[in-house]
Specification:
The protein is of the alpha/beta class. 43% of the residues lie in helices and 18% in strands. The protein contains five helices and five strands. Strands 3-2-1-4-5 form a five-stranded parallel beta sheet, with helices on both faces. It holds the Pfam family Usp.
């Protein structure tokens, strides 16, 4: 059925839970997993004549965001390894997250996009926009939307 599945993540707890579920789904199908983190592009300061000394250069920003991407994608790598699956991951820079998810799935010849939904509706979705909704409306590849019944516990909290 599906042999190559794209699993995008933003590093949030909900996204991490969806990524783990996506890997478990891929395991059932013995599918290859591709993890994707879309980092925001570098923003030049509006006060370009006087750049504060603590403002990162473009190279510093790109390097730090690659590390952030590696950190967020590690959830997918670890879950795939534990499931005995092949996984590759990539960080892409763009301010159009949904478009990059669809483009990457197309370029990588993915059969499916497995994406989490934060579950916002109504004004929350209208005001904040929904990457998942944008992917759904602009994609020719099948999309499986993972919605959790309840919010996950934040990592590092004690019970």
């Amino acid at each position: 059925m599906y042999k190559k599945i794209l699993i995008p993540t933003d590093g949030s707890e909900i996204s991490n839970a969806a990524a783990r579920a996506g890997v478990e789904f891929a395991k059932q199908l013995d599918a290859e997993v591709i993890g994707l983190y879309v980092a925001p592009e570098y923003q030049y300061p509006v006060f370009i004549e006087i750049i504060p000394p603590n403002f990162p250069s473009e190279d510093e920003y790109l390097a730090s965001m690659v590390k952030v991407g590696e950190h967020h994608l590690q959830v997918i790598v670890d879950a795939a390894r534990a499931a005995g699956l092949t996984a590759s991951v990539k960080t892409i820079f763009s301010d159009a997250t949904a478009r990059e998810i669809v483009n990457t799935a197309t370029k990588e010849a993915c059969d499916l996009i497995f994406i989490g939904s934060h579950g916002r509706s109504g004004w929350g979705q209208a005001l904040l926009g929904s990457t998942t909704a944008k992917v759904l409306s602009s994609c020719q590849i099948p999309v499986l939307v993972y919605r959790m019944g309840k919010q996950p516990e934040p990592t590092g909290t004690k019970k």
